[in-house]
Design brief:
- The chain starts with 5 loop residues before the first strand and ends with a strand.
- Helix 1 (30-50) runs antiparallel to helix 3 (97-111).
- The chain has helices at residues 30-50, 54-58, 97-111, and strands spanning 6-7, 10-11, 65-69, 76-82, 91-94, 123-124, 129-130, 146-147.
- Strand 1 (6-7) and strand 2 (10-11) form a beta hairpin.
- The chain contains three helices and eight strands.
Amino acid sequence: MPGRSSSAAGPGRPAASTSPRWLAGRRRNLTHEEEAAFWSWATVEVLRHTGIRIEEMLELTHHSFIAYTLPTTGEVVPMLQVAPSKTDAERLLLVSPELAEVLTAVIFRVRAGNAALPLMSAYDVFEQTWSPPMPFLFSNAGTAPKTGR
């Protein structure tokens, strides 16, 4: 029909808004959403690649990384030292390339352009004590991680 535009809504109908209806009139904090998405992704990936418990993940620090030299070949392999929790036994996990990529992204995010990771104290809700300041990896947005041993 002459004088009428055609759109995805159909011929002769006005074009729909470019934003979805649920966004109309709302402001979104994309920085916050990206931060939440990153930490969700990092949490899922670390738990998936390691099989550790959430409490153990929250207790991971930059000191948890160990370079182990294989006695037979002399090859250096990265290991992740997991603090004792349920079984009261420390564990060493081999860091796969995929896990290394995730942990590198976490360290980069926590460092925020600084030379070193910030030191934070974690509160243990069961023992009701604070840990000494350590470079926790999952100390999201400057809040001290709460552990529940």
